[in-house]
Predict the structure of Transporter.
Amino acid sequence: MRRETSIHGQWSSKLVFVLAATGSAVGLGNIWRFPYIAGDNGGAAFVLIYLACILAIGLPIMVAEIALGRRGRQSPINTMTTLAREEGLSRFWGMVGWLGVAAGFMILSFYSVIAGWSLSYVFRAAGGAFSGLDTDGVKALFDGLVADPERLLAWHTIFMAMNVLVVARGVRSGLEQAVKLLMPALFVLLLVMVGYAYTLGHFGEALRFLFQPDFSKVTGDTILLAMGQSFFTLSLGMGAIMIYGSYLSSRASIARTSTAVVAADTAVALLAGLAIFPIVFASGLAADAGPGLIFMTLPLAFAEMPFGIFFGTLFFVLLVMAAWTSSISLMEPAVAWLSENRDIDRPVAAVIVGAVAWLLGVGTLLSFNLWSAGIGFHVSWGGEMIYIGGTLFEILEYLTMNILLPLGGLLIALFVGWRMTRRSVEDELGISSRVIFGAWYYLLRFAAPIGILLVFLKAVNLI
Ligand code: PHE
Ligand code: NA
């Protein structure tokens, strides 16, 4: 059975869907998290495993997740239960939607805090706060921000309110223009940054760091982080892309649109890496500086480069916009569910979701100051004592990226690849080339689930 539209509305064209999905995908994951995780994990080996995960697992699952959304045309929770019923399967599959809503809340909570840092940097850049700063100066500036819970709370609150405003009106309003104009601008500005970084004289070192792997240093955790990042960056495994798919017209080609989104997202991440690592090596900053990496490297560039105030302000404005178009997609599954099930008006649903995520986010912003000691315990595992724990931010980040998103992706791959009839799948995708359909179906049925399971097992040292 084909539903033509969702009660929540429809994109006005296929292009708008591509823009919205790109808006969801391109965000802090590319510019903040990709460089910082790559830096923490030794660079190239991580990057290459990440790229392999994008192609062999991420792209096939994106196609599957969009197809589910378009076939169900409801919030992920109701889409999954409806489709399971239609295929004669257990209600258990509604689980995918529930897991996704839970992951969405957790991700949104810290996403908003980091976006808050970016907001604060817009004003620092515009006020000329970077001029004349050296490596110690940018570090002190960043440390000063994260040490101040009240300031963090203010920025976090502002950013969350920005999201509630958009989602309350429906994700379509404003999104189209935002993505059509701002994404290309971000792309061009990143190219400018890469060009500037090239002049610093450490470009070769950065290239080797990012692309010349030393696989002997790879651990199960590196692989898990690379896979988790590939889900996070493509907005997969939690229903964001599924619900965007539910607003897509029945005629659009899912395979083609997914490929475009994945290509854009990957390009932005790699450009961010190429902009940041030459600065890291030129300035003597540590590649594994952690979540503050871009907030310590980029200001150094803006301090030196011609028109640094202009470029710096523009960059952080575009970063905030990219984060904004991502975080609204984090809210959308829960908001759509509240409004279709409980008959709550969309604006009220948006406020509820924003408030819960905001509260959880307070725990993240305290993770960088008052609660920086974190929580945890020691366990013995395979004859070794290991410490499990960290700050609330670290725990939420690890749990969502490395466990919940891949698990959601695994369930999506199993549902579409093994539980739905091949006829329904073919009908929804409408791929005319047998070779392309066959390759995709094979990746979805075998490569993706086996890959995810192996990475999970490897990460806990069972293989
Ligand atoms: N893909 C977004 C980014 O890279 C984050 C995101 C994850 C958005 C999951 C929606 C769902 O920043
Ligand atoms: Na991304």
The chain has one domain: 14-459. The mean pLDDT is 93. The beta strands are 375-381, 384-390. Residues 25-27, 29-30, 233, 265 surround sodium ion (ligand 2) (CB under 6 Å).
